[in-house]
Description:
The protein is an alpha+beta fold and about 230 residues long. It has one domain: Heat Shock Protein 90 (2-Layer Sandwich). Helix content is about 60%, strand content about 20%. It has a five-stranded mixed beta sheet with strand order 1-2-3-5-4, with helices on one face. Helix 1 packs antiparallel against helix 4 and helix 2 runs parallel beside helix 3. The radius of gyration is 30 Å and the shape is rod-shaped.
Amino acid sequence: MTWIVAIAAAAAIVIVVVVAAVWIRRLRAQVVSEQRDLDDARRSTQHLETRVSTLRQELSEQHRANAELTAKLRGAGDARANGLWQLERLRQSRLAGTPTLPTANGPGMNVGADLGAAISLELELMREEVGTYAEVTGIDLGNPVSPREALAVLRVVQELAATLAKRADELKISVDRDGDVARVIVQAAGWSDAAPNHATLEQGVAALDGTIELRPETGMLTAEVRLPSA
């Protein structure tokens, strides 16, 4: 009888040891899996932090480039404004990797139509860089549109798109004329953050003698810029 009890006890010990070994192996595998997931999460976080830093730098450079061109534009006469417009379209063609884009030039030129093409291309370049969908819902400035006004409108679109696209799901942009001012409206759908720094945007718009209004709503931010006719 004693030996039966001893065998039973030994069997019970073996079972406990086996179960413990299995449990330990499973625990180790779980720890390894969780550590791997943690390492992946850390790498993803580092990648996102790097990307955010890069985007902030790109936005800062865009603001600086806009400020430099705005300073040139403010005191530009018709001939110089036309030259700056041609240079801006050449810049776009280089960024797009396309042959030199045809630009409005000379008597009878349709700068308004060229402005529409320039804004569409700018949004296409932005979609490739940022990934946010953006479209032009309408451009109606009438005729004639001066190169100075076209460049001012394009600069505003670039500034607003660069600022809003990174925190929106979609941008819709319209340009029209309200009395004696050109009006640029950008609607940022999917917006859930606080409105961007108004002073920074206002500074760039004020350099063009314009005004800006930000209207935050649930899931939407609307920016409206009004520029005096050139």
